[in-house]
Amino acid sequence: MNREDFPILQDTVHGRALVYLDNAATTQRPLFMLNAMTDAYLHYNANIHRGVHHLSQVATQRHEQARQKVADFLGAQSAKEIIFTKGTTDSINMLAFSFGEAFVREGDEIIVSQLEHHSNIVPWQMLCQRKKAQLRVLPLDANLLIDTSRLEDIITPRTRLISVAHVSNVLGTVQPIHDIIRIAHSHHIPVCIDGAQSAPHHMVNVQELDCDFFVCSAHKMYGPTGLGILYGKEQWLNLLPPAQGGGEMIEHVRFEQTTYNQLPYKFEAGTPDFIGSCAFGAALQYMDHIGRQDIYAYEDELTRYLEQQLSTIDGVYVYAHGIEKTGAVSFNVFQGDRLLHPFDVGTLLDQQGVAVRTGHHCAEPLIDYLQVPGTIRASVAMYNTKKDIDRLTCALQRAIQMLA
Ligand code: PMP
Asked: Which domain holds residue 177?
């Protein structure tokens, strides 16, 4: 699907045509997005929201159009609910700080799950340390899915918020977030969904999900680095204090007291990445042009093929085998009882031009739970093909022979 739109895919690595299967870490960028970015720098580079001059007005208009595109993409009720951040990590840190200031007191509790990315653990842990609150952990079931049957036991009258991944960045598994949101809401507890791995591969509709917050990163969705989204329901965002102070987020500043701007600007202190937002808007436009439903159906087929092909190789153990996945598959290679170190396998794959991710994938608590030093993760995007996956399995078989 449209490989020629991604110039980097024509490159060679160690003399072999590049097979890029590390899309869960970051996707490659289409020329359409890169051109939009250059165009913004060349033709409407001016600081936004402040200028009466033409360039500033064009830049402001493009930035706000991009915000509306993101709102449409995520199914938000209003563009006011879309806050531009630096990425998923920044979004969660902002939320943890702001929500913590308003709603978390000593003895309160925040719930995350065993399979979270560090970005969805550490900001909550820091909040808990700051407020003398407690971090509670939802366990996994036998299928390595978040065990929703345990949620009622873990929720207490002190639970203030639940934050979980939509799709595991390690396993690629789709988590039962509908149930989590339903149960949490029956206790009037808000839910934050870490959508870093779902927004690139799923029709996400935050209103249908009824999640209170949703976060994702542009660089995993064919967009620029350094840009992310914090979605929040308007009624929640109105209740939260700004996480940072500075220009743009204010209404009036006096030494005695400052009043804050309206949504979403209250949460956007300083000059925002207005070039990045326009480029992200172009990336979303590119996905729409190809057809999001078609992209997602194609990626699902590729993910199934990936799991199937890996499972046929002697000694390969696929985690959460047969469980619904999107975009990524994690595995390890065993020779008898001996685990081939994921780093060694990944290095041998790289020498054959195949890029995968190895290690703890920024989810050490999950890797500890799996009792391995790490996994090998292959992850797909719209431009991958079954041929790429065949190159991976072929290279993997060679690597296994070499390590025998
Ligand atoms: N959460 C998940 C599930 C992720 O996959 C990632 C990126 N690997 C993050 C959070 C952090 O995203 P970023 O590094 O773009 O802030």
From this structure: 32-289
| Alpha carbon distance 262, 306 (integer Å) | 47
Q: Assess if residue 27 is contained within a domain.
A: no
Spatial distance between the Cα atoms of 280 and 225, rounded to a whole number of angstroms: 9
Say if pTM beats, i.e. exceeds, 0.85.
yes
Look up the CATH number of the domain holding residue 325. 3.90.1150.10
Residue ending a domain, choose from 289, 309, 334:
289
Q: Are residues 228 and 268 in the same domain?
A: yes
What distance lies between CA 142 and its chain's CA centroid? Answer: 25
- 2, pLDDT greater than 90: no
- One domain, residues 213 and 69: yes
Tell me if 120 CB under 6 Å of ligand 1: yes
Distances (CA, A) of 145 to 138, 167, 319: 10, 10, 11
CA distances from 214 to 34, 40, 166, 196, 349 (A): 26, 28, 9, 9, 35
For ligand 1, whether the C-beta of 196 sits within 6 Å is: yes
Q: Are residues 97 and 151 located together in one domain of the fold?
A: yes
Please write the tens of the pLDDT for every residue from 83-110. 999 999 999 999 999 999 999 999 999 9
Distance CA 227, CA 78 (A): 19
Residue ending a domain, choose from 289, 320, 347: 289
CA 108 / ligand 1 centre spacing (Å) = 26
Give me the number of domains the chain comprises. 2
CA of 193 to the centre of ligand 1 (A): 12
Q: Is 98 in the pocket of ligand 1 (CB under 6 A)?
A: no
Q: Is the pLDDT of residue 324 over 80?
A: yes
Dist. CA 312 → ligand 1 center (Å): 30
Q: Going by CA atoms, what residue is nearest to atom 12 of ligand 1?
A: 88
- Residue from 168, 169, 216, 222 to probe ligand 1 pocket by mutation (most atoms less than 8 Å from CB): 169
Residue 26 lies in a domain: no
Q: What is the pLDDT of residues 310-322, one digit of tens each?
A: 999 999 999 999 9
- Model confidence over 36-81: pLDDT tens digits? 999 999 999 999 997 789 999 999 999 999 999 999 999 999 999 9
Rounded distance between C-alpha atoms, residue 122 and residue 124, angstroms: 5
Say if ligand 1 is within 6 A of residue 87 CB: yes
CATH number at residue 174: 3.40.640.10
